[in-house]
Design brief:
Radius of gyration: 21 Å
Distance between the termini: 71 Å
Structural class: alpha+beta
Shape: elongated
Order of helices and strands: EHEEHHEH
Strand order of the largest sheet: 2-3-1-4
Largest sheet: 4 strands, antiparallel
Helix content: 25-40%
Length: 108
């Protein structure tokens, strides 16, 4: 049996749910370690098994509840970088906040 690497990311708390679902299934897998990466699970699965079968073993409720995303390599994983706003964008936000404050004044 040959193995292929599979990475999973999702909303906080997804790890326990995924591991619990997979342990109850008959799917062949080996869990791996992702040191220092709190929002990533690593698995080795049979390369002949379709990804769809792996998702079925986890369960649709878990996949959708935690918005799970599956990747075959770390390069496919999206970066969660936040970019700084430009000076123009910051000016537009200030203008919008001033407009909103003037229009929706709250009085006691």
């Amino acid at each position: 049996m040959s193995w292929t690497t599979l990475y999973i990311t999702g909303k906080p708390g997804f790890k326990d749910a995924v591991l619990s679902s997979l342990e109850d299934s008959k799917m062949s897998f080996l869990p791996g370690s992702t040191d220092g990466d709190a929002d990533l699970l690593l698995f080795w699965v049979d390369e002949k098994s379709p990804l769809r079968d792996f998702k079925k073993a986890i369960g649709s409720k878990t996949v959708f509840k935690y918005r799970l995303q599956f990747f075959n390599s770390m390069n496919q994983r999206p970066e969660n970088k936040t970019s700084k706003l430009t000076e123009r964008e910051e000016a537009l936000i200030r203008k919008m906040n001033a407009w909103e404050a003037g229009r929706f004044r709250h009085s006691a």
